[in-house]
C-alpha cells in the first residue's frame, strides 16, 4: 500500500496540468506516513494551540496520516531572491501548487475509496484563525511527524529536498506502517551556528535570531496578495528561504 500511494502521488505531480497550461515546475515529491495515534498529534494542541485538530477529530476511524512535500524547481525560487515584494512567479507557484494539492488529495481519496478506505484530504492553506494566525491543521508539523524532515531557524520544515515547496496531507482509515521521524538536525544554525541567512533575507523584522513575529510576517504576505490580486489570493512572501543553504537540500549532511 505504501509503495502504491507513493507512485500515485509522484505520477500525479509529474503529469499535472491546469487547463493544459501551467507556469510552475516541480521536482519529484517526498512522501511520509504517520500513525494517527502518534502521541505527537495530541502534543500539537499544546505546541500550536488547543484548537489544532487531532486526526481522530477529523476522521473517526483514522489510522494513518499521509504527508508529502512538493519541491519547487530551483529556477523559479531564484526569481524570488531579489527585491522587496515576492516575484510574480513565486505568487503563481503558490496558487498553482495549492490547486495541485486540492486535486491530488481528491485523487488519493477516490483511489483509497475503491480499496474500501475512508479518507480526508486537508486544505492546503487558509485553515487558520485570522486574528491569532494559529492553524487548525499545521502541514509543517504533520510533515515532521510523518518523517519528512525537521525545522529550521526560519520555522519552515527542511526536508532532504530543502524547504522551498509546499506540503500537503491526507488522513485515511488505511493502516500503513509509519516512517520514523527525523530527529537529526537539518538547519545549519541549529547544527553549529554557521548560518542565519534566512534572518538576513527577512528585511521586514518578522524573523530574528530570537523570535518569529507571525503577525508582521502576515502583513507582508497581505501586501504581496494585494500586489498580485489579479492572479488570485496569493498571501505569500518566501524571502527568508530564497536563496539559502537549505533551499533545495539538507545542508547539514555535507558537514557530517
Structural summary, described in words:
The chain has 256 residues and is of the alpha+beta class. It has one domain (2-251). It contains nine helices and six strands. The strands form two sheets. The protein has a four-stranded antiparallel beta sheet, sandwiched between helices. The protein has a two-stranded antiparallel ribbon with strand order 4-5. Strand 4 and strand 5 form a beta hairpin. The protein is globular. The chain starts with a helix and ends in a 29-residue tail after the last helix.
Quick description:
The chain is 35% helix and 12% strand.
Write the layout of secondary structure elements.
Elements: H1 2-15, E1 30-35, H2 39-47, H3 55-58, E2 64-71, H4 74-78, H5 88-114, E3 119-121, H6 139-145, E4 149-151, E5 157-159, E6 165-172, H7 188-192, H8 197-201, H9 214-227
Antiparallel strand pairs: 1-2, 2-6, 3-6, 4-5
User: How would you sum up the major sheet?
Assistant: 4 strands, antiparallel
Q: What is the radius of gyration?
A: 18 Å
The side-by-side strand order for the widest beta sheet comes to: 1-2-6-3
Order of helices and strands: HEHHEHHEHEEEHHH
Structural class: alpha+beta
Low-pLDDT stretches are: none
Straight-line distance between termini: 34 Å
Number of helices: 9
Query: What is the residue-mean pLDDT, rounded to a whole number?
Result: 94
Amino acid at each position: 500500500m505504501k509503495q502504491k500511494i507513493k507512485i500515485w502521488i509522484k505520477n500525479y505531480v509529474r503529469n499535472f496540468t491546469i487547463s493544459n497550461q501551467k507556469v510552475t515546475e516541480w521536482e519529484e515529491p517526498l512522501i511520509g506516513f504517520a500513525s494517527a495515534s502518534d502521541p505527537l498529534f495530541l502534543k500539537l494542541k499544546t505546541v500550536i494551540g488547543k484548537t489544532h485538530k487531532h486526526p481522530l477529530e477529523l476522521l473517526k476511524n483514522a489510522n494513518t496520516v499521509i504527508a508529502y512535500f512538493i519541491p519547487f524547481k530551483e529556477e523559479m525560487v531564484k526569481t524570488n531572491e531579489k527585491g522587496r515584494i515576492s516575484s510574480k512567479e513565486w505568487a503563481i507557484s503558490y496558487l498553482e501548487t495549492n490547486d495541485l494539492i486540492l486535486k491530488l488529495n481528491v485523487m488519493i481519496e477516490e483511489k483509497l475509496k475503491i480499496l474500501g478506505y475512508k479518507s480526508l484530504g486537508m486544505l492546503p492553506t487558509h485553515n487558520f484563525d485570522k486574528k491569532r494566525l494559529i492553524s487548525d491543521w499545521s502541514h509543517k508539523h504533520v510533515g515532521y511527524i510523518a518523517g519528512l524532515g525537521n525545522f529550521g531557524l526560519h520555522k519552515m520544515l527542511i526536508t532532504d529536498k530543502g524547504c522551498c515547496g509546499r506540503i500537503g496531507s491526507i488522513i485515511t482509515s488505511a493502516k500503513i506502517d509509519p516512517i520514523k521521524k527525523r530527529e537529526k538536525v537539518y538547519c545549519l544554525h541549529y547544527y553549529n551556528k554557521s548560518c542565519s541567512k534566512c534572518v538576513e533575507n527577512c528585511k521586514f523584522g518578522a524573523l530574528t535570531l530570537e523570535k518569529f513575529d507571525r503577525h508582521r510576517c502576515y502583513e507582508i504576505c497581505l501586501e504581496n496578495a494585494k500586489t498580485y490580486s489579479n492572479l488570485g489570493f496569493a498571501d505569500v512572501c518566501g524571502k527568508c528561504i530564497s536563496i539559502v543553504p537549505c533551499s533545495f537540500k539538507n545542508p547539514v549532511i555535507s558537514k557530517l
